[in-house]
Amino acid sequence: MLRIMYRLPFLWIGALFFLLVQPAPCNATMISVELVWNFSQAGWVQIDILKGDYQLKFENTTCKFPAGSDLQVGWGGWTPVLRINHDEFQVASESVIEIKGLKPGSLRVKTPEGSVSCYRGDLQLNWQEGRWRLINRVDSEDYLKGVVPIEMSNEWAKGGLEALKAQAVAARTYLVRQTEGGKRMITDSPDIHQAYAGMSVEGAASKAIEATRGEIVVDSQTKAPIDALYSSHNGGYAEDAKNVWGNPDIHNVAHPDPYSQGIGGAVNHWRFIVSASQLGSAFGVGPVQRVKLDKYPSGRVKSVEIEDEFGQTAIIKGKKFVQAFYPFGQPIRREAFLGSLFEAEFVSSSPERSGQGYSSGMDSSDYAGWLKYFTSYQEDQGPLLSRIISSSLGTAANPQPFGVFIFEGRGWGHGVGMSQWGAYQMAQLGFNYQDILGYYYKRVLVSKG
Q1: Fold for domain 31-138?
Q2: What is the dihedral of CA 339, 343, 349, 354, to 10 degrees?
Q3: According to CATH, where is 2.60.200 located in the chain?
Q4: Which residues share a beta bridge with 352?
Q5: How far is CA 3 from the centre of its chain?
Q6: What residue spans of 326-412 are helical by DSSP H?
Q7: 318 neighbors 304 (Cβ within 8 angstroms)
Q8: For the sheet containing 30-34, what is the strand order?
Q9: Model's pTM, two decimal places?
């Protein structure tokens, strides 16, 4: 019933905003995507033409490069080399190689280390500072076909196609903002811009790109494209942009988000355990005995003050604190530190003292289960709790007497703008993509083509 109450007034507003106002469409264009996610340190690369007709251009040579052709590039003694169709290697006296499509096709890029991706469009290879810099030049709508499925999932098309449509519009809007003023270069890195994996991830989500072709989110007054920010899961409360990047944004403001609660598995509720010694070591102090959290209204942590057993203190910004324990390059799981929306509690290593000062939101049965595990003994090893280093580092051979801290958190990512898991739940509840965008971005319209 709560969700129905949220929906009724919003649908009337959505109808006025999104159906009556139709600004000019956003047309497709060619953009350049630097492939840094998996190929940032590429010394040796092989490109295979899978489909279509291409043209290979290097130095003063231009030749046909049809399906079945391949190119290997590498280096020898810091000099770039290349080999075409398994012929002899030759020195590349110029640092730029271009593979241009004459007919629509696809090409595959792979490295000896095992990175493999397929792409539409053209490919440029630049030799710079001992590595090959790869740039995929591709139609913007085809680019989105390699963004939406990896930012969300092709599987969501079964019951959440409207969420994929919302993601397509948000991603297109983000692209427009990033390429304003004649700029046409972005990266494929989710840490810098948007995740992009080319044809390798194309699937059912392409329907969402086609269904929203050319549509972007714009300011309701100026009709200018907004910063359509988004993250995986906001933990039930969207964050204010100024609390993350320092600049206020009327389109990305803090607000409760019931649609991002109870969905998302590990990212909905995670728990990270770290010993008091390890926690102090991470920030240059002794075993920590006290943690104090300074929070924004959303509940996200602005800063963390820690005090060790010697009275020494340190104040760490929330983002830096998360980065110290974030599972970079590892699979996302419940026993990980995933974001800045969290609580901190202490549990003593001593069985008779375990739970003192512990006031987590866990229910009694869950809490009892954890205590049973923490305070259980193994032969000749003492209580497991005293041997924990952290959720990511496991246990130590020798016990420590300083206890552990348990961080209970919700959400994954910065939490600003659209929550992808929240959008998915809204789609499952019957909201359309205009509803979703209007819920997460304030004072906006969708530009219709």
Answers
A1: Tumour Suppressor Smad4 (2.60.200)
A2: -150
A3: 31-138
A4: none
A5: 27
A6: 364-375
A7: yes
A8: 61-66, 53-58, 96-101, 122-128, 131-139, 30-34, 185-187
A9: 0.85
